[in-house]
């Protein structure tokens, strides 16, 4: 419990620092162009790495997880609100597992 | 376009803060179900309530809270979880950098408070609204998002008892649905598409080709695939603007 709480504090710190540093000290941080490009690709690279193959083991069976992933992708392609994508995928998996 | 950023006078920050609260309502509505899903997921893994609630209170970053729960349950080392979270949240660095150019407020205490609430969603509102030049407006926006995230987490944690276990098990997909919902609409430019595909290919190779012979944890695989794919992107697409 104590070690878990220390982990939470550590996570709070590494989450807060990237949010804080540019707002307070941006003028002292002149990033080179390649670093800016690298950082600008990070969100997409990290999202893709997080999705695959993690999504396959996100529910109790691979087939239901795959189904949920397909539902989410389909809804995301329709450009619906993020909340609809999330709720749609959850109910997709729920329906897949109960039917 | 009106250049005035304060609805009344610059000396009274209250109306601007309230305008920020109002501007954050769509974000707050969106956060509640995702935060409920987070609370439910943590419950289904038997994470202590105090830990789940303090994560939403102290960290306030949806994706990294979900991935922390997943990695904890996969038995990852703490330093791997911290490194994964740091890399995952390095994107906020760019958002804060962009905000630092927009916000005219100079109070360091106010800026430090605003920094805590920088998320994908609050940033997308702050970077499209004229009023966001006022620090108090952004503070209002971040405040309502933070409240919704915490209320949702409490709801998820304490509602969990009443939900059927199959529905709780279905919550595992919520995180990935959120990632898919964030990534897929961005795949319209070639550099982004190439980098995302590259990350998936590297992940597949690490997972199915390398791991059977040489064990690599989930956290390390995510970090390696992210850094290599983004690095290749920066190397391959020298001319193009990414966003």
In short:
The complex is a heterodimer of chains A (99) and B (243). By secondary structure, chain A is mostly helical.
Largest interface: A-B, 72 and 95 residues
The low-pLDDT segments of chain A are none
Quaternary: heterodimer
The proportion of strand residues of chain B reads: under 5%
Total beta strand runs of chain A: 0
Can you tell me about this structure?
The complex is a heterodimer of chains A (99) and B (243). Chain A has 99 residues and is mainly α. Chain A has two domains: 30 residues; 60 residues, no CATH class. Helix content of chain A is 77%, strand content 0%. Chain A has four helices and no strands. Chain A is extended. Chain A starts with a helix and ends with a helix. With 243 residues, chain B is an all-alpha fold. Chain B has two domains: 156 residues, no CATH class; 50 residues. Chain B contains 13 helices and no strands. In chain B, α4 runs antiparallel to α5. Chains A and B meet through α1, α2, α3 and α4 of A and α2, α3, α4, α5 and α6 of B.
Which features does this protein show?
heterodimer; A: 99 residues; mainly alpha; 2 domains; B: 243 residues
What are the SSEs and their pairings?
The complex is a heterodimer of chains A (99) and B (243).
Chain A: H1 2-25, H2 33-51, H3 62-77, H4 82-98
Chain B: H1 14-23, H2 25-44, H3 49-58, H4 62-73, H5 78-89, H6 91-102, H7 108-116, H8 120-126, H9 135-159, H10 165-170, H11 172-183, H12 190-210, H13 218-236
Helix pairs in contact in B: 1-9, 2-3, 2-4, 2-9, 2-11, 3-9, 4-5, 5-13, 7-9, 12-13
């Amino acid at each position: 419990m104590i070690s878990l709480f220390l982990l939470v504090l550590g996570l709070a710190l590494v989450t807060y620092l990237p949010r804080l540093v540019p707002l307070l000290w941006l003028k002292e941080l002149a990033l080179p162009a390649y670093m800016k490009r690298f950082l600008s690709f990070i969100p997409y690279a990290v999202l893709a790495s997080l999705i695959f193959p993690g999504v396959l083991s996100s529910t109790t069976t691979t087939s239901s997880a795959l189904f949920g992933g397909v539902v989410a992708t389909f809804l995301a392609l329709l450009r619906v609100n993020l909340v609809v994508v999330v709720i749609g995928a959850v109910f997709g998996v729920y329906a897949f597992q109960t039917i | 376009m009106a250049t005035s950023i304060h609805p009344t006078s610059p000396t009274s920050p209250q109306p601007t803060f309230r305008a920020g609260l109002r501007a954050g309502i769509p974000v707050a509505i969106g956060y509640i179900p995702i935060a409920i899903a987070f609370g439910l997921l943590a419950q289904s893994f038997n994470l202590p309530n105090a830990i789940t609630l303090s994560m939403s209170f102290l960290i306030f970053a949806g994706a990294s809270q979900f991935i922390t729960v997943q990695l904890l349950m996969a038995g990852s080392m703490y330093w791997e979880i911290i490194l994964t979270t740091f890399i995952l949240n390095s994107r906020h660095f760019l958002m804060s950098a962009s905000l630092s150019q927009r916000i005219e407020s100079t109070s360091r205490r106010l800026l430090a408070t605003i920094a805590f609430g920088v998320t994908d969603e609050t940033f997308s509102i702050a970077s499209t609204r004229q009023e966001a030049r006022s620090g108090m407006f952004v503070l209002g926006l971040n405040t309502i998002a933070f409240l919704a995230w915490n209320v949702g987490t409490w709801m998820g944690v304490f509602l969990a008892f009443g939900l059927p276990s199959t529905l709780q098990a279905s919550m595992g997909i919520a995180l990935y649905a959120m990632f898919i919902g964030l990534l897929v609409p961005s795949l319209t430019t070639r550099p982004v598409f190439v980098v995302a595909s590259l990350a998936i290919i590297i992940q597949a190779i690490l997972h199915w080709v390398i791991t059977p012979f040489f064990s690599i944890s989930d956290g390390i695989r995510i970090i390696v695939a992210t850094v290599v794919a983004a690095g290749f992107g920066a190397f391959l697409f020298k001319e193009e603007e990414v966003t």
